[in-house]
Amino acid sequence: MDRLHTSAPFGVRLLAVAGVLASLVAPTRAEAQVEAEVQQSGVDALLIGISAVDDRTVWAAGTGGTWIRTTDGGDHWESGVVPGADSLQFRDVHAVDARTAYLLSIGNGPDSRIYRTDDAGASWGEVFRNEDPRGFYDCFDFWTPDRGIVIGDEIDLTVSMLETTDGRTWSKVPTGRLPAAQEGEGSFAASGHCVSAGSDGRARVIASNPDYGRLLTTDDYGMTWQVDTLPVTVRAGVGPQSVTFWDSDHGMVLTGGYDSEPADIGVAVTSDAGETWSAGGRTPLPSGVWGAVYVPGSNPRTVVAVGPDGIVVSQSDGRDWAVVDSFNYWTVTFASPDAGWAVGRDGRVTRLRLR
Prior knowledge:
The chain has one helix and 30 strands. With 355 residues, it is mainly β. The model is unreliable at 3-26 (pLDDT under 50).
C-alpha cells in the first residue's frame, strides 16, 4: 500500500509482548560499523526497489518506469525505461542473474503490473497486468528463479495474492487457501520488503490496518498460511514495513510510515522461527524504517535499516543502533558483508560495506 494489509489461514496467535516497557525508551546509540560510498547511477528518478544477485550484479528501479543495473559492483551503472511504463512506479525488483530480472509496478487497477527481462534489459515482457479496478499489489518475492508470490491489499475482506511457478504466468491464489483479511488491511509498498521468501518453501508477509500489525507465514510454498499479531505500534499511515530473517529462527519486523511521529514500538524480534515475538524498541530514524535486511554472512549478526531519515545499523538484534548517514532512502539490499546498496531520492545509490 501506499496502503496497509493483513491475513492468514485458520487461526490467529497473539504474539509475545515481552519487553514492551523497555521499548518505550529512546533507542541506544552505538558506533557505526558500516562504510558508505556514493555511486553514480546516471539517473535522477526516485529509486525504490533494489535486488543484489552477488557482489557485482545488482538491479534497481523506481519512478518513471526507470531501471538500472550494474555488473561490476556499482563502478558503472546502465539504465533504461521500460517501454510503455514511463508513467509507472516500480516499487519492487527481483534479480535472478545479470540477464534476468522482474519489476513490479504499483497502483490501482492496471497500474499494478509485472515485467520480466531475459536479455539484460534490452527488452521487457509484461507478464501480469491487474484488471480489477479495486486491486493494488504491493511487493513480491521468489522461492526459485521462476516460483514466486505477490501480495496485494484486501478486497472484500479477502487477501489478494498472486502466484507463479514459471515466472511468466501469474494467477490469483484461491481464497480457500487463504484466511479472511481484516477491513482496510494491506502492505506498505515502500521498499519491496513486505514479503520475504526462502528457498525452503517458507515465506513471510507483513500487513496491517490502523488496529493490528500481522504476520502471515507459510512453510509449504503458499499452500497453507498461519497468521500472528505483531507487538508493534500501528495507526493510520504507520505499520510494519519490513520483515527480514537472518536464518530460519532469527527474524525482525520494523515499522515506519507517512507519520513523522516515531512509533513507540518500532521493532519486533523472534529467535524461535516466529513462534513468539518480543517488542524490541525503535530505531533512531524519526519516521521509522521503510526497508531493512540482515546482512548475510555477517559476524556478529547485523541488520541495516533505511528510511526517509537515513541509514542505521544494529549488531544486537535491534537493541542498539548506530547512524550511518541521514539522506532519504527507500530500500536496501546486501549480497555479503562487503557488498550492500541503499537507494533513494534523486537517483541516489550508496554502496555499503561492513567494517
